[in-house]
Design a protein that fits this description.
This protein folds into three domains: 422 residues, Maltoporin, Chain A (Beta Barrel), CATH 2.40.170; 88 residues, Sandwich (Immunoglobulin-like); 71 residues, no CATH class. It has seven helices and 34 strands. The longest helix is centred in the first third of the chain and has 17 residues. By secondary structure, it is mainly β. The chain has an 18-stranded antiparallel β-barrel. A four-stranded mixed beta sheet has the order 4-1-8-6, with no helix packed on it. A four-stranded antiparallel beta sheet has the order 3-2-5-7, with no helix packed on it.
C-alpha cells in the first residue's frame, strides 16, 4: 500500500524548518561569521557531566626551569591535551577514568619520555615532565624556515656529516646556471638542485632531520583487529560461517595551542574490500567559538559470489563522501548557540546528495547553579546502510564489513527526520538528572532485516536487506540519571516513552510484511530503557564498558513473535592494558561483543534500532599500540 502523505506538510516540519532558518540565518550575520563545532550527541549530556579525573603537572627542562607553551598530550580512552602556562604548569581536564600515556612537546626540545598515568576520581598527584634541549639549539626559540626547521644564523657553524659522499657533495662544482635555479652536477655524476643545497644547510645532518619529526607533538595509535559475526554460538563452527575479517586501523592526532588535528584511516581485505579515511580539526571546547570541521571518504568493493549483492552495487562497489562543520558559540556568559550542518553523498542513491542541518541553544540560568536548559532543532537525512560507513561502539573507525540490497524492486530511499527537542539537566552532589521532551516527523523509516530473504536468495549475517516502512509522527519524553558509584565506576540509566502515529505505508510494506510482519508497525506506545556501566579497575588497568538496552518494540522474526517479551540488546567491551612498554608506546588488548546495530544518534528516529530485525552478534578483538 502506497501512502499519499508525501504531499502533506505537517506542522512539526514547518516549525522545524522555520526554527532552523531563524537560528542559521542569525548565525550567518557578520558577527557570527565563523564555522561550527558539534554539541554532544546526547540530548542530555549526563554522561559527560559525571565527575571525571584530571592530570596535573609541570613541564621543565633538565635544569628545572619551567617551559611555558609546551603542549602536553594524554592518550588513553580519549585523546586530550593542554598547554603549559607561564609557570610551566598544566591541567588536562575531563579525562575519562583509566590509564593514559602522557607526553610533552616543545620546539627545540627532545620529547619527554612518555609516562603512564592512571586517572581516577580521587587522584590528585602532580607529575613532572622533564625535557632536554636539542643539541646545538640556541637558548631563544628559532624561527622556522619554510616550515622545515630552525634557520641557520649568520656565522653559525653548520654541522656536516664526515663520510666521503657528504664531502663530495659539499665540494661539488657549481654550475653557471645556479642563479637561474638550475641544478648542479657533482663529481659523482648526480644532479642536485640548489634548493636541495639550501635544504641540506637548514637540516645539517640525518640526525637533525630526524629530530624535526621528533619535535612534532604527535600522538597516535595502531590497531590490528579481527572481527566476525554470528547468529547463534554454534554458527561459529559451521562450514558456512562468516569468515573473520582482518582490520588495520590507524589514527594520528596533532594537538596545538588552539585546537587539534585528527587523521584516521582503516582498511580491510577479502571478498569485501573496503576502506575509510577521514580528517578533522577541532578547536578547544573552552574557546568562544569551539568549532569543528572535517570530511571523510569511504569505498566498498565486493568480489564475492553473492549475485544479489553484485546486482545491488554499481560496478561492484559503493562510495560515500561526508563533509561537516559545526560551531558552539559562547554568545554571552552562560548562553551558547550551536549551529552547523553535514553534507553527505551516497553514490547508490538516486538523490545522491543529503543535507542535515542542526541548531541548538543552551542556557545556564544561574551563574552558581549547574542547571542547564537546551533546545535543539534539526533535519537529518540518512541513507539505508549508512551504518556501514560510520564508527562503532568501541570508538574505532571500522570499514564497511557487510553488503546490503533493497528488499523490493524500488530504489533506495533515504530516511528523513525532523526533530524538535527541549531538555534540562542538573547536578545534585554526584547525581546528574536530566529530563527532555521531543517531537519527530519521519519520512521513509528504514527497516533492516538479517537472516530473512525471499526464496532462492542468500541468507547469512554478511548480507542484509533494507526497505522503507513508511511515514509517522512521534511525541515523547525521557528521564536520565547518572553518577559515579565508586572510585573508577560510573553508571547511568535512561528511560524514554513515546507515542507514534503512522500516516501511511510505503511500497516496500508488502515485501516487509511477507518476511517479517512484526516490522510493519501501527500506532503504539514505545518504552525504552538503556543502562550503561563503565568501570576501571586501577590495579590491573582494566576497563569494562557494558550497555544494555530494553525496548518494547524490538522487531523479531515471524517464527518467534507470538508470546515473546521485549527482547534485549547489548554491547560489552573490555580494554586491558598490557604490563610492558616499548619506548614511548603502550600496548592494550581489546575484546568486544555486541548485537546493537548502530549508535544512538541525538536526533535519530525512535524506530532506528528497534526496526533492525534479528541483528547478528558481532565479535571484535585485537591489539592496540598507543604512541
Amino acid at each position: 500500500m502506497v501512502s499519499s502523505v508525501l504531499e502533506r506538510r505537517p506542522m512539526i516540519r514547518i516549525i522545524t524548518r522555520c526554527a532552523l532558518g531563524v537560528l542559521l540565518g542569525t548565525a550567518a550575520s557578520p558577527v557570527f561569521a565563523q564555522v561550527p563545532a558539534r554539541q554532544p550527541l546526547q540530548a542530555t549530556a549526563h554522561v559527560s557531566a559525571v565527575p571525571q579525573g584530571e592530570i596535573r603537572g609541570i613541564v621543565a627542562d633538565d635544569k628545572g626551569k619551567p617551559l611555558p607553551g609546551a603542549v602536553v598530550s594524554a592518550l588513553g580512552a580519549t585523546t586530550l591535551f593542554a598547554i603549559a602556562g607561564a609557570d610551566g604548569r598544566f591541567v588536562v581536564r575531563n579525562a575519562a577514568l583509566g590509564p593514559y600515556l602522557v607526553r610533552a612537546h616543545l620546539q627545540g626540545y627532545l620529547p619527554a619520555r612518555a609516562r603512564v598515568v592512571q586517572v581516577s576520581v580521587s587522584q590528585r598527584s602532580e607529575y613532572v615532565l622533564s625535557m632536554t634541549r636539542t643539541i646545538g639549539t640556541p637558548e631563544s626559540p628559532t624561527v622556522l624556515t619554510a616550515g622545515v626547521g630552525g634557520a641557520v644564523a649568520a656565522g653559525e657553524p653548520v654541522e656536516h656529516d664526515h663520510d666521503e659522499r657528504a664531502w663530495r657533495l659539499r665540494h661539488a662544482k657549481r654550475s653557471i646556471l645556479k642563479d637561474a635555479g638550475e641544478s648542479a652536477k657533482g663529481d659523482d655524476g648526480s644532479l642536485f638542485g640548489d634548493s636541495l643545497h639550501h635544504l641540506g644547510r637548514a637540516v645539517g645532518s640525518p640526525a637533525r632531520l630526524a629530530s624535526l619529526f621528533a619535535d612534532l607533538p604527535l600522538n597516535g595509535q595502531i590497531n590490528l583487529l579481527t572481527t566476525s559475526a554470528f547468529d547463534r554460538p554454534q554458527d561459529l563452527f559451521a562450514l558456512d560461517a562468516s569468515s573473520p575479517h582482518a582490520i588495520a586501523y590507524m589514527s594520528l592526532l596533532v594537538p596545538g595551542q588552539t585546537g587539534q588535528w585528527l587523521i584516521r584511516g582503516t582498511i580491510t581485505q577479502g571478498d569485501l574490500a573496503s576502506w575509510i579515511v577521514s580528517g578533522s580539526y577541532r578547536r578547544q571546547a573552552e574557546a568562544t567559538h569551539a568549532y569543528e570541521a572535517g570530511l571523510s571518504y569511504s569505498a566498498q568493493r565486493y568480489l564475492g559470489a553473492n549475485t544479489e549483492a553484485l546486482q545491488a552495487m554499481s560496478d561492484a562497489g559503493r562510495n560515500v563522501g561526508v563533509m561537516y562543520a559545526y560551531d558552539n558559540w559562547l554568545l554571552v556568559p552562560r548562553v551558547r548557540v550551536g549551529y552547523g550542518a553535514q553534507y553527505a553523498r551516497y553514490d547508490y542513491l538516486e538523490d545522491t546528495n543529503l543535507l542535515s542541518p542542526r541548531a541548538s541553544l543552551t542556557i545556564q540560568p544561574l551563574e552558581h547553579d549547574s542547571l542547564k536548559v537546551r533546545a535543539v532543532v534539526s533535519h537529518r537525512e540518512t541513507a539505508p546502510g549508512a551504518g556501514e560507513f560510520a564508527g562503532s561502539f568501541t570508538g574505532l573507525l571500522l570499514p564497511p564489513e557487510r553488503t546490503f540490497s533493497q528488499i523490493s524492486r524500488a530504489s533506495f530511499r533515504p530516511e528523513r527526520v525532523d526533530h524538535l527537542e527541549v531538555s534540562a539537566e542538573r547536578e545534585w552532589a554526584a547525581l546528574v538528572v536530566g529530563v527532555r521532551a521531543f517531537q519527530q516527523d519521519v519520512t521513509d523509516q528504514v527497516v533492516t532485516m538479517f537472516g530473512l530473504a525471499p526464496p532462492d536468495s542468500v541468507r547469512g549475517v554478511g548480507h542484509y536487506r533494507v526497505g522503507s516502512a513508511g511515514d509517522f509522527e512521534a511525541r515523547g519524553w525521557g528521564l536520565s540519571a547518572s553518577r559515579a558509584v565508586a572510585d573508577g565506576i560510573r553508571a547511568s540509566v535512561d528511560y524514554t516513552q513515546s507515542r507514534t502515529q503512522w500516516a501511511g505505508y510505503s511500497s516496500d510494506a508488502l515485501a516487509i510484511a511477507t518476511l517479517a510482519p512484526v516490522a510493519v508497525r501501527s500506532n503504539e506506545r514505545i518504552h525504552d530503557v538503556t543502562a550503561t556501566f563503565d568501570s576501571v579497575v586501577a590495579p590491573s588497568s582494566t576497563r569494562l564498558i557494558v550497555v544494555y538496552k530494553l525496548n518494547s518494540t524490538f522487531a523479531r522474526p515471524r517464527e518467534t513473535v507470538a508470546g515473546s517479551l521485549a527482547s534485549a540488546r547489548f554491547n560489552v567491551q573490555v580494554n586491558q592494558s598490557l604490563p610492558f612498554t616499548f619506548g614511548n608506546a603502550t600496548w592494550e588488548m581489546l575484546a568486544a561483543v555486541s548485537n546493537l546495530f548502530g549508535e544512538d544518534a541525538f536526533d535519530g528516529s525512535v524506530y532506528d534500532e528497534s526496526l533492525v530485525v534479528r541483528p547478528p552478534k558481532r565479535i571484535l578483538g585485537g591489539v592496540t599500540v598507543r604512541f
